[in-house]
Every structure is written in structure tokens, then in C-alpha cells.
Amino acid sequence: QVQLLESGPGLVKPSETLSLTCTVSGGSISDYYWSWIRQPPGKGLEWIGHIFHSGITNYNPSLTSRVTMSVDTPKKQFSLTLSTVSAADTAVYYCARDGTRSDRRFILDVWGQGTTVTVSS
Amino acid sequence: DIQMTQSPSAMSASVGDRVTITCRASQDISNYLVWFQQKPGKVPERLIYSASRLSSGVPSRFSGSGSGTEFTLTISSLQPEDFATYYCLQHYTYPRTFGHGTKVEIK
Prior knowledge:
The structure holds two protein chains of two kinds. Chain A has strands at residues 3-7, 11-12, 18-25, 33-39, 46-52, 57-59, 67-72, 77-82, 91-98, 107-111, 115-119. Chain A starts with a strand and ends with a strand. By secondary structure, chain A is mainly β. Chain B is 0% helix and 50% strand. Chain B has strands at residues 4-7, 10-13, 19-25, 33-38, 45-49, 53-54, 62-67, 70-75, 85-90, 97-98, 102-106. In chain B, the strands form two sheets. In chain B, strands 2, 4, 5, 6, 9, 10 and 11 form a seven-stranded mixed beta sheet that branches. In chain B, β5 (45-49) and β6 (53-54) form a beta hairpin. Chain A binds chain B through residues 35, 44-47, 49, 58-62, 94, 99, 104-105, 107-109, 111-114, and chain B through 1, 32, 34, 36, 38, 43-46, 49-50, 53, 55, 87, 89, 91, 94-101.
């Protein structure tokens, strides 16, 4: 079955850029949306945005000025960059499959294990 | 943004209890509503999609109902493994928004 695995630095300095990659295995990256979601320590879940396999994106307006998502279909990877980070961006970052254009069965049905990113000097 | 308000924010219940959690949307979201369960230190797991459809592999004691602005997640007979935090999410419009969570604790 489909599995997702996040990778990237666990520690980022304030004002620098956070970069994470999610690798899809066991299934296709095509025809799906792929989301990034984060969870600060002890807090709830926040949807960051998602990208379609074609590269179409939708971002949370609260982060849109700092977020960029991209997809590399041959490598079956999609990525998140978040610029000018601060301590408020410290969180567990998850990638997840987020449905197709027409089928809700796959809305956030598969998640990666999550990767902890700490923003600190 | 559509605000998702969950109630209660926390509750205590006993094994075997029937538990109901409510999620209210600040505007009509039809049935574009998903429920998740998250245990401490674990990845969220989807329980319900389209407000009432059970995800594959999820026990039948979980059920969802509602449409428009009011939704409920019901656990018919609480089991020890159900003690967790539950979140709702709307995907009717962007940005997708989560409720703040309902923590179900052992009484």
C-alpha cells in the first residue's frame, strides 16, 4: 500500500528556510493532491497547503507569503519550503495524500510518520 | 476561513460508554467533513470521510453523521484503545481547517 516518508533537517535557524521532502512509495503520485500539515508541540493540526501532481497548488493564506510547494513526479517526491522561519514554526510536519479531483475516498487517508522541525539558533 | 468548533474540548468517559463529539462549521460545508483520531506521539488516523463514510479498517463502533453546519462523531461503546484526541476537518473550501480537538480521557 501507499507509504509516505518525510525527510529534511530537524533543526533550522531563525530567519532561515525550512525545506522538507516527502517520498511516495507503493503507489502512484499522479492524479492525487498531496498535502503538508503541521502540529506545534502540544497543539492542534494546521493545514499548510497542497499540490496536485501537475504542480497546481493551494496554500493556507496564513502562510502563503512564505510557502512554496513543488513536485517531482519521476522521483515520486513532493516538497515544502517555508522561508523566514521563527520559533512559531517549530512543529511536527506531516505529509499526506489528499484526494483526487473527483474522489473523496482518498482525502488525507495516508500520512507520513511526521518529522520534527525545531527552529532555534 | 471557515471556523470549525468542536465540543467538548475534553471529556472523561468509561470503557463501554457511548461517546458523542460535535463539530460545528461557521458556514454550510455540505458533507465535506472528515474525522481523525490521534493518540499521543502518533500520526493522526482518518476515521470518517464525507461526514458519514467509515474509512477502511476502522471499527464499526465509530460512526459519523450530519451535514451543513453540524456534525457528530459517535463511539457506540468506548474501548481502551479509543482514548485519544479527535479532530474534525472541513475540505469544502480553502483553506482546509481543523477543529481544535476533543481529548477523550479515562474516567
